[in-house]
Amino acid sequence: MIGIGILTGGKSSRMGTAKSQLDFFGCSFLERKIKMWEKYPIYLSVNHKETLFSLPVKDITIVEDSFSETGPVGGIYEVLKATSYRWNFICAVDLPFIKKEIPDFLELFIEEDYDCVLFTLNGKIHPLCGLYRKELAEFFKISLEQKKLKLISLLKMLRVKYIPLEKTAFPLNLLDNVNRPNEYIRSFGNSISICGLKNTGKTTFINGVLRSLSEMGVETAVLKHDGRHDFSIDQKGTDTYSYAESGAKNVIIFNEKKIAQIRYEKNRIDYKEILERERGKQDIMIIEGLKGEPLPKFEILRKSVSEVPQSNPVNRLGIISDIPYTGEGLHFDLNQPSVFAQYLYELFVKDKNTI
User: Fold this and answer.
1) Which of 124, 128, 242, 323 gives a 20 to 30 Å CA spacing to 5?
2) Is 184-231+272-354 a CATH 3.30.310.50 domain?
């Protein structure tokens, strides 16, 4: 058995809010990790205990910083000092794509000749997702007392087993962290929801945005949620329609340039699985609908149709409307989809390339 140390500290100055509390598909970054590793003993490194909310798992040891303003070195020290386990998986709270099986995977590489087991990606060391020996607590204490706070420099003094992430089967975004608001928005798979009540003009506006993005050379995808619980994109009289009518649960048609599929699922379809499957295939995915979900979203308001926001306020970035709006968030004109398209370009394409 190994221990799990989750580092929640840090000022989050670039984010502007505590990263541990950021909502990710209906669950905070911190809650997600606690639930993911609930079978392990968890050690939670925090700046101050009073900043925490009620936690979903009982077997949690909360450790406060005894050395203030010392970054991850201080957090690692507190976990290693408190733990009862020889090896401990240390993970920063702001890694949204981390997988449940990572601690067990890294445990396979434990040897007596090593002090740490860490990932690298393209030669870059990722020290906040790896295994550390408990015996290193004294080493980190001395480093803190000497005000040596650069973790990468300290690792050069230790015996580290490095695992190149690109040589594993894990996705390359496994170690991506979130420091800025735009990075947080992009963590949802470069997707943005445009939602609103019926007859607010969602389809017309989205088509205008798509045309503008296409003119910019941006590749787009659209995910439409049909809240009526049934839909058809086929036509009566076609071969594919008849196959489905005859009982086929999966009908696929393709040629050299395109493919279409209608598949009937036994279980409820989860949009999060679709977003994960399609991640990275296009520059931007626009979602029509899902106004009740905690996705990054803009709601359309239209005069005499819907003049008050109805969507889930979590991650609602702003409003698109043909009426004045003075509420929170950004505001775009419903009649100027090209302006909104430019915003998406800068958020998902241009900004990504400059960070």
Assistant:
1) 124
2) no
